[in-house]
Every structure is written in C-alpha cells, then in structure tokens.
Design a protein that fits this description.
By secondary structure, the protein is α+β, with helices and mostly antiparallel strands. It has two domains: 207 residues, no CATH class; 190 residues, no CATH class. Helices cover 55% and strands 17% of the residues. The chain has 15 helices and nine strands. A hairpin with a 2-residue loop joins strand 2 and strand 3. The radius of gyration is 32 Å and the shape is elongated. It starts with a helix and ends with a helix.
C-alpha cells in the first residue's frame, strides 16, 4: 500500500467518485467550484500582473524611448549647444546627448486647430537619445531638412485631428510675446509640408511634432526653449544626475527637467494601479482558497463514520489531521497549477486576442489620447507566476487546517452511536 497512509486516504477522498448520495454529490459539486474558483483567480491575477508589467515596459521603452530622460536648458541665445552637448555626453552616467529646441505651438489646417509640442532637432544627433527613427520612413529626415519646403513630422493623433496626410501642408502658429509695443495678439506663422507621420502607439502620437533645428529657432524668435536632451544609464536616477550636471556647469541661466516631471504621474499611476489591482485579485484567490474550508467541513460531516472506523483501527489524531490536510492540499495544488498554466497562456495571448476583438468588431478599446498606449500590452514575468501559484497553494493549505482539526476531534463512539 502507498505510504504514508494519511496521504493515501486523503488522495482517495479527493479523487473518489461519489454516486447515489445527495450529500456526497453536493460535496463533489462544492469541491469542483472551489477548484474552479482557484483556477480562475490564479489565472486572472497572472494576466493582470502581466498587463501591468506591459504598461510599465511601454513607459520605459516606448514613451521614454522617444522622449529624453532629462533635458538641460538655457534661455541665452549665445550658448554653443554643440560644445555643451559634447561636454554633457562626456559624463560617465550619461549614455548620449542631443541638442533640441522646443516650442509650444498651434497647428492649423483649414478650420482645424490643435496644440502640439514642436521639437527642433538635428537628425544626426537625435537618433542617439530617441528611438523615433524606428517609427519613420527612410526619407523622413531628408524631407525634414528641406530648405525650400520645410518639412514637419507629426504623430498620427495630430494628423487625424487635422485630417492631413503625408505631403499635405499646414501652418504652425506661435504667439509672439516679445513683439514691439507689447502687442500680445501678434504671432509668428510658418508653413510646413508633412514629411512623415509616425505611429508609436503611445500618448506622444497626440502631441509631438518634429521640425529642423533652424525652423524651431525661427519659430521661437528671441524666446527660449533650446537645450540638450540626455539619455542616462539609470532612468530612475535621472533627476539626481540632472541636478549634479547643473551644479557642475556652474553658470547662470541653466535649468533642467527630467522625465519624472513630464511622465512621473503616469509612472506612479501604473505602479499604484498594479498594486491595487493585484490586491483585489489576491483577495479573489483568498476567497476561492477558503472555499476549501466549506468543502472540507462537508467532507468531515460526510465521513464521520469513516473517521470513527479509522480511529478504532488505531489511526492517531495526527494521522486523521494529515488525511484531510492532504485532501485540501491536493485541491489547492491542482487549482493553483492549472490556474498558473491558464494564466501563462492568457498573458502570452491577451494582446493578440484584444487586437483580434478590436478588428472583428471595428472598435478600439484603448486610445492614446486617454490611455498611455493604444493597445493592451503584456509582459509575462516568471517570478510573478511563481509568486501567484505559491500564494494559491499556501492559502489553500492554510484553509485546510480548521476542518482537518475538526476531523481529528471526532470521537468514535459518538460517531458510531447512530449507525
């Protein structure tokens, strides 16, 4: 016979098929519900944590792949930006640097107007700090630098708002705050031809436009906005690195900003959502695991006679306890393992599944003007799988202790009195 005996009997109880007894059938039904709930709870938590990991990855690799980790500015027009770029790039904690000129403007096409952030770039250096090149065609940068018909690169969201396509023309309007006589109603206006339209799948599609450095300088006039964008080795240390570089420059007029000011709220929202959703789904797993309590309590009631017979045959209190712990542990183990497998499958396919549903029904569940990205990302972490499956097994095991303890206290004489 399989040893140890308590485990053997517990596994037999868990796998036995019960027929002809209404109470036994009810026990089997509730046991199945407990296991199903645990499977779904574990699977759901793995999928949810993978989606939160996906949002975190997209923030790091897509949004902050296009936007810099930090930018150092100076309003003075006398700065040698090329020399400053080389100076900052020489720092051991700075991976790369590129000059940029940022201007807040309005884009107009016919009767449509939308605000946008215009970045004047140098194509030779911007690729060092930004992955924007991955979303552009091969002719985008040459068209951008055209001096006869200056080009502009737009995000897809801006292009859709203005109803423009590649090759179309639009105007950029920048208020002239330095106009003579203090006339705030004047503005600088420049025409551009759309060189390319990028689709990063992120919120940047709704706000970012690129022009050449010279065109951005002309739009800015005597205003500021010029600076050096930095990509640092450790994104989370960007603020500290930026402040250290500002102190090292030791010249008036320099100031800076980092990604935590522009996208820090988004990062915090993702982390908070991950923690809150993880807690809620963990409670679902806990509820499903503790359904094992009701299952085993009913099993104990149903098996009073069997318990009494085992006790009269010499089974100890510890052996009876281990018998029902083994049964509950099997339910938890099977539920957690099957739930883990289902969760892994869901995490690997949820992105394609949602995309397929969007395509089939002609709807878009996520839009980049509301959410950070316009698709549902997912990144499976095996450490999360191990944590969730382990939590499911542990909670199930803890849930077996009370009914197993009740079973161990059954008195043979009292249980057999009415048999």
């Amino acid at each position: 016979m399989f040893k140890p005996i308590p485990t053997f009997i517990g596994l037999r109880y868990a796998g036995a098929r019960r027929r002809g007894d209404d109470s036994a059938g009810l026990v089997s039904f509730i046991s199945g519900l407990s296991m199903t709930g645990l499977v779904l709870g574990v699977a759901l938590m793995i999928v949810v944590m993978s989606i939160m990991n996906g949002f975190d990855r997209e923030l790091r690799e897509r949004i902050l792949g296009i936007m810099p980790h930090a930018t150092i500015y100076n309003a003075s027009p006398a700065i040698d930006w090329s020399a400053l770029r080389h100076q900052l790039a020489a720092d051991p904690e700075v991976v790369s640097a590129a000059e940029v000129w940022q201007v807040n403007a309005l884009a107009r096409r016919g009767g449509e107007v939308t605000p946008l952030l215009v970045q004047g770039i140098n194509p030779g250096t911007i690729v060092e700090v930004s992955s924007i090149r991955d979303f552009l065609g091969s002719e985008a940068f040459p068209k951008l630098m055209d001096t006869v018909e200056p080009g502009i690169i737009l995000g897809r969201g801006i292009a859709e708002k203005l109803d423009v396509a590649q090759g179309a023309y639009l105007s950029l309007i920048v208020p002239d705050n330095d106009s003579a006589g203090g006339d705030r109603r004047s503005a600088r206006v420049a025409g551009f031809r759309v060189a390319d339209i990028f689709h990063s799948g992120t919120v940047l599609d709704q706000s970012l436009a690129l022009v050449s450095w010279e065109q951005a300088q002309a739009l800015a006039g005597n205003g500021g906005g010029a600076g050096v964008q930095l990509r640092v080795a450790d994104m989370l240390e960007a603020n500290w690195i930026m402040r250290r570089l500002l102190r090292a420059l030791d010249q008036p007029g320099y100031y800076g900003t980092d990604w935590s000011r522009t996208h820090g709220n988004l990062y915090q929202a993702i982390q908070m959502s991950r923690n809150l959703v993880g807690l809620l789904v963990l409670l679902i797993i806990a509820i499903a695991a503790f359904n094992v309590v009701s299952t085993l309590v009913m099993v104990v009631v149903d098996k009073h006679t069997d318990i009494a017979i085992l006790r009269t045959m010499g089974a100890s209190t510890q052996q009876i306890l281990l018998t029902f712990v083994s049964q509950g542990a099997l339910v938890g183990l099977v539920g957690a393992v099957f739930g883990g497998a289902l969760g892994v499958l869901g995490a690997l396919t949820v992105t394609d599944l949602v995309a397929g549903l969007e395509s089939a029904f002609g709807v878009q569940f996520l839009k980049s003007d509301v959410y950070p990205v316009d698709y549902l990302p997912s990144e499976l972490a095996w450490s999360d799988v191990a944590l969730v499956v382990g939590a499911g097994i542990l909670l199930s095991l803890l849930a077996t202790l009370y009914p197993a303890w009740q079973a161990s206290r059954v008195q043979p004489a009292a249980a057999l009195r009415n048999e």
